[in-house]
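Subject: Sanity check before I submit

Could someone independently write out the structure tokens for this chain? I want to compare against mine line by line before I put it in a report. The sequence has 76 residues.
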Amino acid sequence: MCLAIAGRLLSEDGEDALFRTGRVDFGGVVKAVNLACVPEAEVGDLLLVHAGLAIGRIDPDRSRPLDRNVSGTEGV
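---
Independent answer below. Compare away.
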């Protein structure tokens, strides 16, 4: 089973698609993430990340309810 967590892409680095990385914010914790599997990712996008690899981009229309749910879990 794969567990992925959503995070917001803050910045991206690299020209080569295989080595492109980004800084992703997971509710205040910022980590470096490989963006090779999500070439369409842009700064501001909400991404699904597993083991340091972005594996998907969450549609903006679907991210609003997720943002509310994630922000409601702070301090749990």
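---
OP: Matches mine. For the report I'm noting this point. The mean pLDDT is 86.
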